[in-house]
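Handoff note, outgoing to incoming analyst
You'll be picking up this chain. Sequence as last confirmed:
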Amino acid sequence: MSLDVLTTGAGSTSLVFALVLLGLLVAFILWIPPRAARPRADATPASVPPREEPSLELPAAPNPIVALYFSAEGRISRSIYWLAQIPLIALNLVIMTIGDAMADGGLALLCFALSIAVTVASIMIGIKRCHDRDKSGWWVALSFVPLIGWIWTIVELGFLQGTVGPNRFGPDPVPA
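Most recent structure output, in case you need it:
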């Protein structure tokens, strides 16, 4: 099979495939928790203070909108999920329309970069919704499977109720 199949045609499949892979890579990088310091067998005497591990945690988001779209921490309710995803879907449609109209030049590159940012934000929203359902954020990867993954995403993240009360990902986002 030739790679020409991926680069020709109406849909530009290779661009979509690259966006999906890049989005998954960014989500994976943002999701990795920092390593905990483990005591070594050849530990130094008590008189020598232990060496402090550098912190790999990102600083707190400057505002709740940035935290909502670009942080994988915590939980969100179904209503917040839809209120966050609908603008992303609309923005992505606008970006794709502009990108298709301006296939050549710098505007296409800008559309590509914006599309990556929208994809990452959508992944982060999905991860938080998975957390509300008491599932790992890795379940969001299922949304990249055509048809079955899309149906799963809509049902699991968009319609099913989250865990009542606190779970391993934080407190309940819906007040009692």
